[in-house]
Design a protein that fits this description.
The chain is α/β, with parallel strands linked by helices and 414 residues long. It folds into two domains: 3-120, Enolase-like, domain 1, CATH 3.30.390.10; 137-412, TIM Barrel, CATH 3.20.20.120. The protein has helices spanning 57-72, 80-91, 101-119, 123-128, 168-188, 209-221, 258-271, 286-295, 310-314, 327-330, 333-346, 363-371, 384-400, 409-412; strands at 3-13, 19-29, 32-40, 137-144, 157-161, 192-195, 201-203, 231-235, 242-243, 246-249, 254-256, 274-278, 299-302, 322-325, 349-353, 375-380. The strands form four sheets. An eight-stranded mixed beta barrel has the order 4-5-8-12-13-14-15-16, surrounded by six helices. The protein has a three-stranded antiparallel beta sheet with strand order 1-2-3. A three-stranded antiparallel beta sheet has the order 9-10-11. A hairpin with a 5-residue loop joins strand 1 (3-13) and strand 2 (19-29). The chain is globular, with a radius of gyration of 21 Å. The structure holds 2-phosphoglyceric acid and magnesium ion (MG). 2-phosphoglyceric acid (2PG) binds at residues 44-47, 147, 157, 198, 235, 237, 303, 353, 355-356.
Length: 414
């Protein structure tokens, strides 16, 4: 068993040109180094209020090189639960505000990478053990709005899900065509204003519904069948729209009650091939979320609403039917896995997700594959912090070959 010999932190930069923290963990036998693992903390822009707290990057780097290094040294790097427990103890706060969730998640993930490297297996394989795995079904952003495009439109993520694709690689082929078609359509109309934080087009829509019409148009332009080949997933990130008990659609200059918004979402779901809707109501509006989930025939995802908390999923009482898993919302791998376990026990679906502030770190792809989480959300089909993750998925799919479980897209959304 390899033991942790050394840990250090360093400041690196993310996709928004902001500081973030990288952890590097050296493991070995005796005093002989065997392997190194590295991971970088991502950062959100539309964050849930109950997310674990970060500390500034110099403090995170300092914490990693001092308290965390001293606390984890000599632990077996294969014992992820023990490592994460120690991190939580060293932090000693309910919200991770002492060590910082950014420092903790970088270290927690770097330990997993170091263990995989010491065992000479890919991270997904270390996590899966002998279980057979498949690639997850991607939700890929085509238009970006909300907090990722200075509120250009109210809906944050207009995404596609290639529900009819037979493999991860085919889903990416189709996505490339839809992404290109969507850009051409916007450019022709003079409605293309660049790309938003996750690489989706920054659109000049006049209404939020226009985004749905444009998605349908782009799917058709790509020669694919909306609803059969390709469905739509939305992230409303509605906490961002919630003020004084109502929902403010700034683009349309309208203020809606929860009941009115509920009716609007149901009309959209009836009129368009929507297969998933995330945070359709604010994180504090549980009653609206519950009423909506009861009425909604498709996947209702809690992101800000659950903040990857196993307890919140266990206490959901009918709110949402799926959970977004973001390791940096809780701070450690073990807690993220506990949330996935809670979701499975409750019969909820799950999606591993990146953040709007990302880097070349591809750990989340391995988590989705290794833990058997059947969906993955990474942002759009542009910018290398996104493409690095899609490309990693391609490598894993290729390496699995015929050993893979059947690709789950058609079954998930049948
Ligand atoms: C979300 C994510 C990714 P952020 O809301 O699901 O789209 O955004 O990382 O800004 O929270
Ligand atoms: Mg979200």
């Amino acid at each position: 068993m390899a033991k942790i010999l050394d840990i250090r932190g360093r400041q690196v930069w993310d996709s928004r040109g902001r500081r973030t923290v990288e952890a590097e963990v050296v493991v070995g036998r005796g005093t002989t180094p065997l392997a190194t693992g590295r991971a970088i903390a991502p950062a959100g822009a539309s964050t849930g209020s109950a997310e674990a707290k970060t500390v500034d990057v110099p403090t995170a780097v300092h914490n990693i090189g001092t308290r965390i290094r001293d606390g984890l040294r000599a632990l077996s790097v294969s014992d992820q639960a023990r490592i994460d427990e120690r991190l939580i103890d060293l932090d000693g706060t309910p919200d991770r505000s002492r060590l910082g969730a950014n420092a903790m998640v970088a270290v927690s993930l770097a330990c997993a990478h170091a263990d995989a490297a010491a065992q000479k297996v890919p991270l997904w394989k270390k996590l899966a053990g002998d279980r057979r795995v498949s690639l997850p079904v991607p939700q890929i952003q085509i238009f970006g709005g909300g907090a990722h495009a200075r509120g250009r439109c109210d809906v944050q993520d207009y995404m596609i899900v290639c529900t009819g694709a037979g493999s991860f690689a085919e889903a990416l082929e189709w996505t490339a065509q839809v992404y290109a078609a969507a850009g051409q359509r916007l450019a022709r109309r003079g409605a293309l204003q660049g790309v938003a934080d996750e690489g989706g087009y920054w659109p000049a829509f006049k209404s939020n519904e226009e985004g749905l019409l444009e998605l349908i148009g782009a799917i058709s332009d790509a020669g694919l069948e909306p609803g059969t080949d390709v469905g739509i997933a939305l992230d409303i990130a509605a906490t961002q729209l919630y003020r004084g008990g109502n929902y403010h659609l700034a683009l349309e200059n309208r203020i809606l009650s929860a009941e009115q918004l509920h009716a609007m979402w149901l009309r959209w779901i009836e009129s368009y091939p929507i297969v998933s809707i995330e945070d359709p109501f604010a994180e504090t509006d549980s009653a609206a979320m519950r009423a909506f989930t009861k009425a909604c025939p498709v996947q209702v995802v809690g992101d800000d609403f659950f903040v990857t908390s196993a307890d919140k999923v266990r206490n959901a009482a009918g709110a949402c039917n799926a959970v977004l898993l973001k390791p940096n919302q809780v701070g450690t791998l073990t807690e993220t896995l506990a949330c996935w376990d809670a979701a499975r026990t409750a019969g909820y679906k799950a999606i591993v997700s990146a953040r709007s502030g990302e880097t070349e770190d591809v750990s989340i792809v391995h988590l989705a594959v290794g833990w058997g989480v059947p969906q993955l959300k990474v942002g759009s089909f542009a910018r290398s912090e996104r493409m690095a993750k899609w490309n990693e998925g391609l490598r894993i799919e290729e390496s699995l070959g015929a050993k893979a479980l059947p690709y789950p897209a058609r079954k998930l959304f049948e």
